[in-house]
Amino acid sequence: MTDTDTPVRLHAVDAPGQPVVTPELTELYRGFESELLVPLWTEIGDLMPAHPHPTALPHLWRWKNLRELASRAGEIVPVGRGGERRAIALANPGLGGRPFVTPTLWAAIQYLMPGEDAPEHRHTQHAFRFVVEGEGVWTVVGGDPVAMRRGDFLPQAGWNLHAHHNATREPMAWIDGLDIPLQYQLNAQFFEFGRDALSEGERTTPERSRSERLWGHPGLRPIGATSSAPGSPLLAYRWEHTDRALTDQLDLYAEGFASGTIEPGHAAVRFTDPRDGSDVLPTMRAEMHRVVRGTETEPTRQTGSSVYQVFDGSGVVTVDDHTWSVTRGDLFVVPSWSTLSVRSEASADDSDSGALDLFTFSDAPVFEALRLHRKA
Amino acid sequence: MTDTDTPVRLHAVDAPGQPVVTPELTELYRGFESELLVPLWTEIGDLMPAHPHPTALPHLWRWKNLRELASRAGEIVPVGRGGERRAIALANPGLGGRPFVTPTLWAAIQYLMPGEDAPEHRHTQHAFRFVVEGEGVWTVVGGDPVAMRRGDFLPQAGWNLHAHHNATREPMAWIDGLDIPLQYQLNAQFFEFGRDALSEGERTTPERSRSERLWGHPGLRPIGATSSAPGSPLLAYRWEHTDRALTDQLDLYAEGFASGTIEPGHAAVRFTDPRDGSDVLPTMRAEMHRVVRGTETEPTRQTGSSVYQVFDGSGVVTVDDHTWSVTRGDLFVVPSWSTLSVRSEASADDSDSGALDLFTFSDAPVFEALRLHRKA
Amino acid sequence: MTDTDTPVRLHAVDAPGQPVVTPELTELYRGFESELLVPLWTEIGDLMPAHPHPTALPHLWRWKNLRELASRAGEIVPVGRGGERRAIALANPGLGGRPFVTPTLWAAIQYLMPGEDAPEHRHTQHAFRFVVEGEGVWTVVGGDPVAMRRGDFLPQAGWNLHAHHNATREPMAWIDGLDIPLQYQLNAQFFEFGRDALSEGERTTPERSRSERLWGHPGLRPIGATSSAPGSPLLAYRWEHTDRALTDQLDLYAEGFASGTIEPGHAAVRFTDPRDGSDVLPTMRAEMHRVVRGTETEPTRQTGSSVYQVFDGSGVVTVDDHTWSVTRGDLFVVPSWSTLSVRSEASADDSDSGALDLFTFSDAPVFEALRLHRKA
Amino acid sequence: MTDTDTPVRLHAVDAPGQPVVTPELTELYRGFESELLVPLWTEIGDLMPAHPHPTALPHLWRWKNLRELASRAGEIVPVGRGGERRAIALANPGLGGRPFVTPTLWAAIQYLMPGEDAPEHRHTQHAFRFVVEGEGVWTVVGGDPVAMRRGDFLPQAGWNLHAHHNATREPMAWIDGLDIPLQYQLNAQFFEFGRDALSEGERTTPERSRSERLWGHPGLRPIGATSSAPGSPLLAYRWEHTDRALTDQLDLYAEGFASGTIEPGHAAVRFTDPRDGSDVLPTMRAEMHRVVRGTETEPTRQTGSSVYQVFDGSGVVTVDDHTWSVTRGDLFVVPSWSTLSVRSEASADDSDSGALDLFTFSDAPVFEALRLHRKA
Fold it and tell me: What spans are recorded as compositionally biased (Basic and acidic residues) (chains A, B, C, D) (predicted)?
């Protein structure tokens, strides 16, 4: 590399807080450039702001539009080895066109046509699936077929071999969440192809996966199971349990008892690793929130970024100075230190009488592990 | 205290490894006594054996006999403030007549007549109840009524107020496990009386306790529940879950998969704190084991002591050089470093076709926390 | 075992809270005895007191007396294989003549004559040595000779082979602390003899042990040292460091800064495992306290028991309703939940001008690990 | 935002693994763009490589050049509020001219002229200073003046107020390490100005900082100090300790004992938090390595990135296919999964006879906390 192709470009400008532009300063900056150096004093405002100035922007994606484009992709884009998945990622408008919904998180709609297979592979990126509608696809994780149904949350920690198959006559869509941007920034990724075809034994769809039979009993640890690999060994958190837990919290509150609700009319559960109660994946937190119709949540903000998907109901969401009416399937992003509040209310075309159910995932475990978590 | 009432008594004897008995030695020993001193060299064999010489002995109590005596006590011994509980403790024959089943553990049969109340109190001793037969009693823990039914495991960490009520027309018996001997040795105990009567709202018997509605959903943490008190916040581990988990393990094994079983034909679950997967109580481990008919478990030994109760089925138990045929309800103790093996087999009067289900509790968390755990 | 030799003896008495004595009750108690059962209602006052009623009593041992008796033992009791150590243990007057200073702790004066060897062995009991006077003995732990000098604290976690040698022409005394009573109650002990003689290479007395060269640099971890055995890998905490740390705390306080002192005029350091900052041994906490002349410490009490030895200075100690004037070497015990306060003051024959330095050890890690710790 | 200014740009190309370019595909891609979507199949090779393809490149900066440019900056660029520090950062040639030495780490030379002050501020970014030459500057952290001398490592966890002052008649240079890029990517940063001038009491240079007097005694914890803020409370790790620890390791190895060395001729210590033995800062690991002259280290690679500075001696460094001769002060970067080996040898102008001492820092705690650590 010579002076002329150094990637460093410094512009001496007369500005408050900057040194006076002189020929000596200009010469100094040329010296910096040729040695691949950048002074702090030209960059400090960007690098060390008074509080987070998130690069990601608040944004809303309509499920209806995602669904249509994914369906169209289902018709004309094949799925198979190389492309690996028919997954279409949300690209935050503040992140330069990269398929990153936040600086750390990936969110995509994945779409599988009847009879299709998404081939087996594994990667260090931690992942999960969440099903807002439909059913019939199963994911085979480490040889264990896991059925996917509306409301189910299906984590899959890094380096587990996995494949998908649509065993029905209908296409199916769901969302994928991964820590692709985080691992991309960290240069931490490994990837391997798996087998090209699943065995016959894996092409069945049991009601419960083996992981659920082993780990899905409340408070009961299988003594002989000794895995200590990162991430939850439980591969499916079924909607019937999630729904019941939320209903119980709200009922307990109504009966006048300590209930685990976050605030009146706002129940929530976190998906956790049954081995130790920690977050379900080392880099991602996932939760389901229920906001009773008519309730408006207290505005809160925290470091780290989140993605929300409306699972059921409708309402109005405010993120900093953005306000959106949202309904089933809509996805929105809450950047670091942005203020979020949610109001649960009927929409014009909302015939259901129920609450606003919000699925959310975030990078909170990263912030907590690195002692960077702040809340207000 | 004068020389004459010192509790120390030293006897100089001519024995291998002991100093030669001389007038000087005798005088020295008198000096030791008057200063409340004891030399190591007279005690080392007892205090520092090559391996544990447990003071507790292997022993079996027959449920039939316990049940009869408890029933008789139900007739003639009232329950109420002062005595607090109609609990009758197993006194290990090696522990000098004290009501200690092992040096750290208390095990008792508790008996409550129709309509009776055991008054509210609390203590630092950690406790649980396990129900081998009957139903109809509920325990109110911190104001939360918890129904008790056959097969249920009901932990109750120290310092929670609790009372019992028998709401039926039948007497009911169950076993209590506590760490009374441990806390007695450690001089760690606190105790307080609670209210003399429960409120009307506490005199109902809901199907599920509030604790189960809050904490009993697999892998789901109620985000707003922030208790960090010691011991599980889940107050009931229901038989239906335990039974299903054991069945699942054995089925998975039969299907050829990693199953969590301890060995072929031997499934087991541990009752854990859903907040962090640790033992359900800080000083006691509790587990349910299922041994398939015809299976004999591998002999094992470990430091620390355990108590077992036959929940169902029948078989033959070997603890060191003791062998007992056991059937429903029978209790036996496995002292520290004693070797245990179990064979599941039909008994003469055993009409059921099933497995041998063994409930067990131990002081393993103490040994693990203090790094004193050894296994062979 | 027949009815006649059951260890259980129950006496039906007419007393408040006890069932009325009737022939039926007496018969019931005979039944209990023959089945090795003890009811809670006759025992609850003893087992479940309102607060700890420690079995150990506050007591003081004078170093002068211990020293004289140990010296006398040095003359007439040989040290060698079998007896293993010329250690003379403090027997708390409340503990029935057993060589237990508290229910969990052992404290002994050990004495080694010029040229004597205490043979190599190992045991699961955790141990330490503390030197109140003299020098010249070294302890070989796992082949590493560790010099012992006044003020040094020398931990030695369970299952490390160790021996002592007095390389000087003077006898030497020090105190040993172990968790013998705890492991005795728990039936957790293992013991093995080591070699009968040390190698020549082990018969030198380096200024610093190998453990200090590896682990004795503040905040610096040797990357290639990977031991995870229980207890500190650092085998000597030298007085020069302890003294300086205490001096620094008091100076910082005098200069007006946050200083780590516990209260004005009362500095203290805890001996910790440099790998993780935890207590130096899994079952024992050890600390050095310095109380400036004229200072009286705030009375405090906590669950768990402690032993103190005056390392330097003199003063007045109050434990519950016992008050003692103490001077160098004196040892006293603080039972569970007993209130302790210390006043540092000159004694009649105290020529030094300095503070009262108190070495102390306790079973606090046991209480903390088991969540039984309370403080007032 | 309209279709025309979407940041997403997708180009349909005929390539292996990509869908055939058709008008329908092009239309689909236009739809993706307008909805801010990006398919996985066009990005997977970049986002999910078989192993890390680090964006950072191996690179070497010569201390001589850094020193000269910093000195020149000392003459013409003032230091004060706004620019805050005369720090000049190493810009990795693979990171687009940003002042990031790796994707997570910042490394800069900081330069302070005689009598200059760098004003007080604080920020969430974790930081340290390491001194390769000179002395005379002290850093005031939370009011505690910390002298800086050759070989000292001075950590400073996030959110501590700090300022620098050069109290001598000579300029002084040192290196700063921070996690600026990591916190920039995560949008986690907070920043506050402190006071504009230090108090007189802070303008002294004690031999030892208060932090060292409180926390710098090996294995001794000040009991009354209760801070649990992230990062080490010890603000200076002095060269005399580091040097001695390394010397001891090599001596122990030479004497034939377990020594903590990583491999023959290669000693190393990690700077740790004395409270718990964890890494000195939550996001950065720092170590000092000593490679004996003539030794070549085993090639190793790991996920995560490191920066090295030659503290003393000289040698030859190989990072993947780059090889550099290095001498005192030179800095080089080892990207994620790049292979590093070092040979210690005399250079032409190297008059010292000693070993190659390498200071290094990395983002290893991030990788370990997130379970992304791999090593080969």
Answer: 200-215
